[in-house]
Amino acid sequence: MRRALAITVTLGLLAAPLAVEAQPVGRMYRIGLLGASPPSAPPRRWDALLQGLRELGYVEGRNLTVEYRYSEGTGERLPDLAATLS
Fold it and tell me: What pTM was computed for the model?
């Protein structure tokens, strides 16, 4: 009896991680948005872009990651910032 209980508990502990394993997430897409200076609120055009992506099924945090980079007022740094996104 004691042996059967020990085996049952052991098998239950070994199987537990399999039961709580999350379903695999589909492909995660990543886009980068470059701006000249950090705004106090995201530009309306970015909001419109993200809304359009949502309508197509791309939801930030679920299957889409958006990375923002700002050049602090000068466009000269934009190529370097774009390279950090790849």
Answer: 0.58
